[in-house]
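Lab notebook page, bench 4
Experiment: in silico fold of construct C2
Operator: M.H.
Input chain length: 305 residues
Purpose: comparison with the prior construct
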Amino acid sequence: MYLTTLPDHTQPGFDEQAHFNNFSRQNIIFNAAVYKSHCDEHIGCLSLKTVRSGEEWYKINGIPIAVRPQHFLILNNDQPYGSHIDTAERVKSLSVFFQKDFAGAVYYDMLHSEQHLLDHYPEAGPVPEFYQTLHLMNPDLQLQLRQLINELDTHGYRKNRVDEHLALLLQTLITHQHTHFLRTHAVNAVKHSTRQEIYKRICTVRDILHSSYSEQLELEQLGRMAALSVPQLIRQFRAVFQCTPHQYLTRIRLQQAMCLLANTDHPVQDITWMCGFENASAFGRIFRQWQNKSPFAYRKEQHQN
């Protein structure tokens, strides 16, 4: 099923049960451009969430996470979550929902040898589970999503052709997940289960930093949200990401500032507070340390290219 509008859950007579039943029967793709959308609670199947412009906010286990271009979020099967869009500019939201049996079949195929698959045809395995954290969009995944949307916009929804795209897309996501399993080895803990849990909590902190980089975030607040003490948070975050939470946040702010300097005409003073820096002087000093040039020189250089 391919839909170019998001459902209005607040509309009188909206049939929630019928809507949610669709996700158990088929793969569904939402590709919509909207100003406002709101869903307090949804329990869906395995799904990929991203935006091609703007931002969409999700709430998972009480933690607000912003999905913006160049990032995506994967939600596991039966994961409760809420979502909302409320912006002055239209948000291009893209969600891909993988039907349970379809996802299980793709995962089973990747887990077993060709001989095993021949001897046990047809069988499906469990639905794959992912770390529910923000992921960086890589070129292969960007290309696959563009090809999927182009297929749908050009030829309409043709189940067999769309399922081919979705099988390859899910294979890419499962392969990408392996990089997170490797990262868990950087966590300072003996038991594998402990490393996994700490990694999930560290990723929660990283997601908060990405989502709320313009706010003044305190270590104590971050620790409470991830259920980690401040010393443990700093130590494990540095082990996994090779920098402290403050250094990571500064990097996010600088990257956002570079984007605004290159692509907008916002005054540097406005960019300073939009990106969470204390004042223009501090912003200029940090920017020069990172880029060996002032924000003004960087903007001039980018506009000349």
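Observations: The first helix runs from residue 16 to 25. The chain has three domains: 2-181, 187-242, 248-304.
Next step: discuss at group meeting.
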